[in-house]
Predict the structure.
Amino acid sequence: MTAKRPYLMRALYDWIVDNQLTPHLVVDATIVGTKVPQQFVQDGQIVLNISPTAVVGLQLMDTEVRFNARFGGQPMEVVVPMTAALAIYARENGAGAMFEAEPQLDKMPQAEESEETPSVSLDTVEGNKSEQPSSKSSSKKKPNLKVIK
């Protein structure tokens, strides 16, 4: 069978946008082939706003997510191999899904060189904290998905 992640991602993206919410993609920035703004990566992950008003030319393909966006005023092409997509959710209410590991994705050409997909834990952060992007961290901690309400 083919991997279900690309199908679920497209369906959830459409559902989130159809409900006038803001889709955010959680990405494992350590996967080979991932092209994201490294200055915003924290603990090996980055959360990207992929709403139609935030990106240009969004392509949710079977093997990768690709789009153009501006980060700090600088235009950039973003490429996220499907193995690096960890979750998609609506910013406003957290509705969405975390993706499970899929052996089918590991067999795709872009994923052959990638490391094993790390486990993801879900933490809840209370309050409205303003986090500043940090520089690259050399620590090898497991990535954590934080839901900010």
Notes: The mean pLDDT is 81.
